[in-house]
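Sequence design from tokenized structure. All designs in this work follow the same two-part layout: the structure record, then the generated sequence. An example of the structure record is given first.
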């Protein structure tokens, strides 16, 4: 490949596409790009990468081995979604008021970043943080 690819989509397999889109648009202020008529696919704008949603029992899950959902009481999965903010504390509180489950309140990290963690309505781990401030 001469040119590296651009990350096009991050897809969240969820229980209810409409409820997840509603949560993410309210909690993170993301604009809905589209929801198909069947409510089995939706897209939110996040900048250069699209955040998409599809049901847990989508046809592709049968092909690729199914989807394991996360819960509050188990270790997190090997992928998390990160959103960056200038005012991490205010963003964190807003996200929790919108229905996210608080996992760890924001704290300053030794590498110069402030980070908190929540789970979305389907148990997906989300980092609410700042960018690392280089000296």
């Amino acid at each position: 490949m001469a040119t590296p690819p651009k990350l096009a989509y991050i897809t969240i397999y969820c229980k209810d596409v409409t409820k997840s889109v509603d949560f993410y648009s309210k909690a993170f202020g993301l604009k809905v790009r589209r929801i198909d008529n069947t409510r089995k696919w939706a897209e939110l704008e996040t900048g250069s990468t699209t955040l998409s949603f599809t049901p847990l029992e989508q046809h592709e899950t049968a092909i690729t081995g199914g989807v394991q959902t996360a819960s509050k009481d188990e270790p997190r999965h090997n992928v998390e979604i990160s959103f960056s903010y200038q005012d991490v504390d205010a963003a964190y509180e807003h996200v929790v008021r919108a229905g996210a489950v608080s996992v760890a309140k924001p704290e300053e990290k030794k590498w110069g970043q402030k980070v908190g963690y929540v789970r979305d309505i389907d148990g997906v781990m989300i980092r609410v943080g700042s960018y690392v401030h280089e000296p």
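The longest strand covers residues 101-108. We note this feature because it recurs in several other targets discussed in the main text.
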